[in-house]
């Protein structure tokens, strides 16, 4: 499973694990300092560390993919594209905490205990998620093309594959289509596959014509069998496979030029190994 539904909300497993770790860290820091007069300052520093880590993780992604952002400057602040480098954020946040705790052994101990427990808490789901992802391959379930002919997605093996689950009623799906269309046109070495969820031919064709889209490999998954098999719980979800059909990474939500290019680099590198 790549994402889960919580009521009307859908969240990626990777994001949920990060939130779990941050929540455990905050909670343990609060519990350890509940009788201390400096609790507010200690918790305020934790909040500052979260904010700094968030900003640094985003900034490092933007700098890495700087060329892609030249095309659309407003995308710099469009954090919904998922463009973050968490490892840099963790380091930046830890530095904020370390600077505040310098010379304060009790505070340093509080942060250290909270960090160790938070790390241990997320280790199991992180390991489980990595094991799951390592075993995911191109879907076996059948899809159907615009002529109603059955298509085997396994037939796309041999080159990197990008599978986008979408629907015309989904606003972020509609918004990212021009980005995916441009990528399909400019990257013939990658197979882009658009798997519509639960809509009929007339609805899909009407949308494509209205938006003046020129897409290849548009298929139908009427009963959402393929998305369920792939572990995609929400729309849009985009899966990135290496040329041998192994899942490399996934993205839930709208893609920008920068985030899509970042993921394409990952599957190209994996396919070259």
Query: What is the helix/strand order?
Result: EEHHHHHEEEHEHEHEEH
> Which range best describes the helical content: under 10%, 10-25%, 25-40%, 40-55%, 55-70% or over 70%?
40-55%
- Please mark out the parts with pLDDT under 50 across 5 or more consecutive residues, or reply none: none
Task: Give the C-level CATH assignment of the largest domain.
Answer: Alpha Beta
Characterize the overall form.
elongated
Roughly what is the average pLDDT, rounded to an integer?
94
Strand order of the largest sheet: 7-6-5-8-9
Rg on CA atoms, Å:
21 Å
Overall structural class, as computed from helix and strand content, comes to alpha/beta
CATH structural fold name of the largest domain: Glutaredoxin
In total, the number of strands is 9
CATH architecture term of the largest domain: 3-Layer(aba) Sandwich
Distance between the termini: 26 Å
| Fourth-tier CATH superfamily name of the largest domain | Glutaredoxin
Beta percentage is 5-15%
The major sheet is characterized as: 5 strands, mixed
Count of structural domains: 2
**Tally of helical segments:** 9
């Amino acid at each position: 499973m790549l994402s889960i539904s919580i009521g009307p909300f859908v969240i990626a497993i990777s994001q949920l694990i990060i939130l779990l770790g941050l929540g455990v860290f905050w909670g343990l820091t609060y519990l350890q300092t509940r009788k201390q007069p400096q609790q507010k300052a200690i918790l305020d520093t934790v909040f500052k560390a979260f904010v700094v880590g968030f900003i640094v993780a985003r900034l490092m992604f933007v700098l890495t993919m700087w060329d892609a952002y030249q095309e659309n400057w407003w995308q710099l602040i469009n954090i919904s594209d998922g463009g973050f480098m968490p490892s840099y954020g963790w380091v930046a946040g830890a530095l904020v905490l370390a600077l505040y705790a310098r010379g304060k052994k009790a505070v340093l101990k509080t942060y250290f205990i909270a960090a160790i427990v938070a790390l241990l808490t997320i280790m199991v789901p992180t390991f489980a998620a990595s094991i799951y992802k390592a075993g995911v391959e191109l879907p076996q379930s059948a899809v159907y093309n615009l002529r109603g002919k059955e298509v085997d997605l396994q037939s796309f093996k041999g080159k990197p594959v990008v599978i986008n689950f979408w629907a015309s009623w989904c606003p972020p799906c509609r918004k990212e289509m021009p980005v995916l269309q441009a990528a399909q046109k400019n990257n013939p070495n990658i197979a882009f596959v658009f798997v519509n969820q639960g809509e009929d031919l007339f609805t899909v064709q009407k949308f494509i014509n209205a938006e003046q889209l020129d897409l290849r490999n548009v298929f139908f998954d009427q009963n959402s069998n393929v998305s369920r098999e792939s572990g995609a719980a929400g729309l849009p979800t985009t899966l990135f496979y290496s040329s041998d059909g192994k899942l490399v990474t996934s993205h839930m939500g709208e893609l920008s030029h920068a985030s899509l290019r970042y993921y394409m680099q990952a599957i190209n590198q994996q396919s070259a190994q």
